[in-house]
Amino acid sequence: MVRNPRVQPAPALGSVRLHPWNEVTTWPRPILGAASFIEERDPVCFFPVCGPTFTSLKVGVGHRLDAQASGVLVLGVGRGRRLLTDMYNAHLTKDYTVRGLLGKATDDFCEDGRLVEKTTYDHVTREKLDRILALIQGSHQKALVMYSSLDLQTQEAYEMAVRGLIRPTDKSPMLITGIRCLHFAPPEFLLEVQCMHETQKQLRRLVHEIGLELKTTALCSQVRRTRDGFFTLDDALLRTQWDLHSIQDAIQAAAPRVAAELEKSLRPEPGTQQLPGLGRPWDSKGPSSGLGLESCAGH
Amino acid sequence: MALSAQQIPRWFNSIKLISVITAPQLRQCSQRAGKTLLCGFSAQPQMSSDNFFLQWGFKTYRTSSMWSGCQSANSGRQESNSARSTLLPSVNEQSQKTQKTPNFDSELSLEGLDDLPLLSPLQPVSEEEAVQIIAAPPLPPVSFTLRDYVDHSETLQNLVLLGLDLSKIEKQPDAANLLLRLDFEKDIKQILLFLKDLGIEDNQLGTFLTKNYAIFSEDLENLKTRVAYLQSKNFSKADIAQMVRKAPFLLSFSVERLDNRLGFFQKELQLTVKKTRDLVVRLPRLLTGSLEPVKENMKVYHLELGFKLNEIQHMITKIPKMLTANKRKLTETFDYVHNVMSIPHHVIVRFPQIFNTRLFKVKERHLFLTYLGRAQYDPAKPNYISLDKLVSMPDEIFCEEIAKASVRDFEKFLKTL
């Protein structure tokens, strides 16, 4: 008969060791029972000895958002991090609201940078601004077609362009698929930009260049991402909602949309060039792993 | 046994407090084991001796088990086992083994030791004996975790039952060694009784000791002197208990150090004795923490933020935590509150809670109120919103009463920031 030294009945323990101690103080009785408890349990799972069970959680981040910008930031938790790369390769557009200020120019295009130049802006009108924005959109559209490596002479490519489904195939500089002015009250103006492969610094530089085109100067006071792919502000979690249950609910709510969208974007389009990497089998992820979002305000 | 004699000095080096385990006893024990083997007794003693020989290389566990196994044969010595050593395995596993008491000679001469033939580990063992061998892994001589020793150390077990978090303590470099070598009966019990007398409850002992396990290495007389000093400064018993609970390292400070610190606060803040006492009782961390941040913060308040001394005194008596706040956060919060929200100094002095809240909270609520047109912080004008209501309330109450809007509106607004 093999005896496991750990499994010991309590009375033996009490009678040998704890008796003298119990006589001295009014130590709570449970210590007798608890002592046997500690003997019977495997010390490997006993919390004050081994520490917390979960010590690390792997979180990955999607498209970057720098410190002065705010808005939707997509995070992947655990096995959902794999979906982040797929989202990156899907080349989906992002929506930004960019607030600009006419009449000043700084070195880093932000409000708190070193002031470089001050100009007047009385000559700027809404029509001039719209004209500039249309020019920008047109030139970026041409770049988009070039980077998507599509032959625009074909019928399929033309239909795709009409529906606005042209996507770049690989790395490319910032591409603006849509830009318009929401609000114009000099010196302030508000733009809505749809773009991909951008950084927020390039968006601020864009505002600066718009100012130059308008023969004045401009800087960017706020960059806010309102949509990242199919994640919008409504899905985003506020700082007060950064707890386990809200995050779990958000992941579960977003999971079917994530799967559908990624499947759609990875499916090879008819008539286009087949590139390696597309058309691979897609396995659906469970609700426990997935993409979550947060909305964070800039500093 | 010559081999076991070699083991003993190494064993002594690793464990300081085991004074009662002497070489002759051990040899006596092994002598008996050898005797039983030779006599060809029942399976049980055979097994225990086999254990001893098979694992002679692992000094602490098996030799000690052999020793206690021998001792348990003499029933009278059972009580002494527990008090002796902390690294010995639990007595139970030996008491459970129904050792048949062979006819030992109580007096064995030491000269006979070298005549006994050594049993080699390669000696064949019968099937039943092999099954009965309890081959638990031996105690490692060094380990990175206390998990290996918890099973065998009464001190550690009792400490865990008290509520000490060993997983935190083993991260400190010397803590684990200290705790293992302490004897529960002698050292720890005295200090625990002392702490209980002081007024610390049983369920609070665990958190206290996790922070300040070094109190076990303090002299009891020193601790009593320090408590007497605090009592002489007119701190009541309940006050002292509260201070010790909140700042576990308080009693590890010498009397001169405590004196210096109390004197520093009285001089620097120029408060009366009673107010200093109240301040220290509310935030005993001031006495145990470093004094440099406090000095720096005083300079910041006076020179950079432009508060007068009586204003600083008033703020500190209300919110003692201001003395240890982060300088950068202080200046950022003050900059926003004074310049952006345009709140003058005398209003800030009345509500020092502003310096205790996160800056983003203040910003969010202020921007929401500005958006609604309700941002009125001048006490003279109507619709005045006091700063403490701005920062100290939870979101729901703030939205309903101050902003007169729903929480959903507030969340939607936050998403536009």
UniProtKB/TrEMBL annotation, chain A:
Pfam families, alphabetized: TruB_N
Stretches assigned to the Pseudouridine synthase II N-terminal domain: 56-200
Domain of life from the UniProt record: Eukaryota
Stretches for region Disordered: 266-299
InterPro entries per UniProt: PsdUridine_synth_cat_dom_sf, PsdUridine_synth_N, Trub2
PANTHER family hit by this protein: PSEUDOURIDINE SYNTHASE-RELATED, PSEUDOURIDYLATE SYNTHASE TRUB2, MITOCHONDRIAL
Family: Belongs to the pseudouridine synthase TruB family.
Protein name: Pseudouridylate synthase TRUB2, mitochondrial isoform X7
Native species: Equus przewalskii
Lineage: Eukaryota, Metazoa, Chordata, Craniata, Vertebrata
UniProtKB/TrEMBL annotation, chain B:
This protein's UniProt keywords: Transit peptide
Pfam families: mTERF
Source organism, top-level taxon: Eukaryota
Keyword Transit peptide: yes
Family: Belongs to the mTERF family.
Protein name, entry field: Transcription termination factor 3, mitochondrial isoform X1
Organism per entry: Equus przewalskii
Gene behind the chain: MTERF3
